[in-house]
Amino acid sequence: MASTLTRLLVHVTFSTKHREAAISESAEPDLYAYIGGICRRMDSPLLAMGGTANHVHMMISLAKTVALADLMMHVKRDSSKWMHEREPAAPGFAWQEGYFAFSIGESGAEGLRKYIASQKTHHATLDFKDEMRAFFTKYGVEWDERHVWE
Predict the structure, then answer these.
(1) How far apart are CA 80 and CA 23, in angstroms?
(2) Do 8 and 104 form a contact (C-beta atoms < 8 A)?
(3) CB of 13 within 8 A of CB of 50?
């Protein structure tokens, strides 16, 4: 019997709307677990997640039957609703409109895990926009400053 086997690793990152510091450290573990559940439900396991008060990074093993846009719509919509219900201190919580996603090979997975785990230290000296500009350059993504930030 023929099978389709895939291993599609994707690094996804997105910020809170206007990069507001809206994710409290106390909310992070439950938020990440909730997002992990959304990913599992869509057969796209969350392999790593981390971030700061204003953005998150995810490493996902994307299912062969799921479009990344569909997964991200569910992740952002459902986690935003969850934040409104669970975090009364963040009534205006929202994610940015879009997201940034980059494919990675298996050989880069461990390095990405470490990078995601070190977000708080990393961002002590580098802001989100500069971090994303570096990724755009690294992955050869053309961008227009007028359209990537809200």
Answers:
(1) 11
(2) no
(3) no
Per-residue pLDDT tens digits for 48-106? 999 999 999 999 999 999 999 999 999 999 999 999 888 666 678 899 999 999 999 99
DSSP state of 16: B
| Number of other residues whose CB lies within 10 A of the CB of residue 75 | 25
* Predicted TM-score of the model (pTM): 0.91
Identity of the residue numbered 134: A
CA distances from 99 to 1, 26, 68, 95, 125 (A): 38, 24, 10, 9, 22
Nearby residues of 23 by Cβ (< 8 Å), 6 or more positions away: 16, 31, 51, 52, 53, 54, 56, 90
**Every domain of the chain and the residues it spans:** 8-141
At the topology level of CATH, where does 8-141 sit? Alpha-Beta Plaits (3.30.70)
Burial class (CB in 10 A: 0-12, 13-18, 19+), 102: middle
Contact 113, 59 (CB under 8 A): yes
Burial of 146 (0-12, 13-18, 19+ CB in 10 A): exposed
